[in-house]
Every structure is written in C-alpha cells, then in structure tokens.
Design goal:
By secondary structure, the chain is mainly alpha-helical. The chain is 74% helix and 4% strand. The chain contains nine helices and two strands. The protein is globular and about 55 Å long.
C-alpha cells in the first residue's frame, strides 16, 4: 500500500483516500486490524492523519471500533449488502427507464463503447480494471437521466456499492453473464424498451446480491471449520 500523492489535497485527505481504496479493493481485508503505528510506518506519515482517516472511515461504515481491539475493517455482511442493493436496485431501474427517454446520440455511442471496454477489461482478469470499466459504464446511464438529484443519490451509494461490486467481479465465472446483461441493457435503451431495461437492471443487481451472499456464507463455513 502506497500513498497516492495529490498536490491539490492536504495530507490527511490523501491518507484517507489511500486507506479507503485499500479497503474497497480488499487490499485491507474485512476484520483486519488497523494499527495506527503500523499504518503510519507503512505510509511514511505521522499517526495524526491516520487517526483522522480512521475516524472518517468509521463514519462511512468501512471501519468499525471493537472493544479492546480498536479499529478494524468492517465485515461484509448479508444485511449490509441487502440494504445497499435494495436501494440501488430501485435507483438503477429508474435510471434506465429515464435513459430510454432522455439519452442523447452521443451518450448512446459512449455507452456502446463502454460495453466493449468492459468486455475487454474482463480479458485482463484484473479486478480493479474490470470494476473501473463497470463503474464507467453505469455512470453513463446515470448521467443520461439528466436528473441531478438522482445522480447525487446514486453517487452517494457508489462507494458502498463499489465494495460489493468488487467482490462480485473477482468471480471470473460471472463475467460472461455481466457482459450479456450489459448488452441487453444497452440494446433496451437504444430501442427505448423501458420494460426490458428495467427488468434487466433489477436482475443485474439480484445476481450480484446472490453471488456475494453465497461468498459470505462460504467464507463463514470456512471460518467455522478452521
């Protein structure tokens, strides 16, 4: 883990962004203790920005404070994913329906390119690149709604969503299914087929939820056996 320096950001924000990204991508794993001294030494900073970053991550729900243990990376739980995806499912369905009416020719072309870019990203087997391509694709649809409030709502959920999306994307057996769902969503928006677009957007989230919950339960069984 290395600091991604940004001359426009104060050090505390750089530390926060670095730790947050490490959690979202699984570099810092669920349940892992966040030791201030160790993190300060690793990142080459004092403990103060580490402490501030941990406090902000706790507010975002990415870190939990455990009695007698201190700060830990928050676990990925069934309840957590169900709550986040329940909201995202409804928002995504609304986004594709609005996009059917409002998307521009330029945005349609960009969406088609994004679908192709996602498929190419899956060939790399690099979860970070695949996740970025997936986010880029869905962002085009959200922006195409032309609804600033809706864009804001989706963006507020995006960071929490990213963690679950990343877990899903790590499962290479789901990549062909994701590519096909993206293709159907694109073609539905192209042909202004709101019903198919909405149903596929919901299915897209349903499949993600089922896959990640299956992983959670599998991991729990391993822990119990261990």
């Amino acid at each position: 883990m290395q600091l991604k320096m940004d001359e426009f950001l104060p050090l505390r924000d750089v530390v926060f962004n670095t730790l947050r990204q490490a959690i979202l991508t699984g570099e810092l794993e669920p349940g892992e203790r966040l030791m201030e001294v160790h993190l300060a030494n690793t990142l080459g900073v004092s403990r103060t920005p580490i402490r501030e970053a941990i406090r902000k991550l706790e507010l975002e729900g990415l870190v939990t404070m455990v009695p007698r243990r201190g700060a830990e990376v928050a676990q990925i739980t069934e309840k957590g994913i169900q709550e986040v995806l329940e909201v995202r499912r409804a928002l995504d369905a609304l986004c594709v329906e609005l996009a059917c009416d409002r998307i521009t020719e330029g945005e349609l072309a960009a969406l088609k390119r994004a679908c192709e870019a996602f498929e190419k990203a899956t060939d790399t087997r690099n979860p970070s690149r695949i996740a970025q391509a997936d986010v880029a694709l869905h962002d085009i649809i959200v922006q195409a709604t032309g609804n600033g409030r809706l864009v804001q709502l989706v963006n507020n959920l995006s960071e929490q969503m990213y963690r679950y999306r990343f877990e899903y994307i790590k499962d290479t057996s789901k990549h062909r299914q994701l590519i096909e769902e993206h293709r159907i969503i694109y073609e539905s928006i192209l042909h202004k087929d709101k019903e198919t677009a909405s149903a596929t957007a919901r299915l897209h989230i349903d499949n993600q939820e089922a896959s990640v919950i299956e992983q959670i339960r599998r991991d729990c069984k391993k822990e119990h056996k261990g």
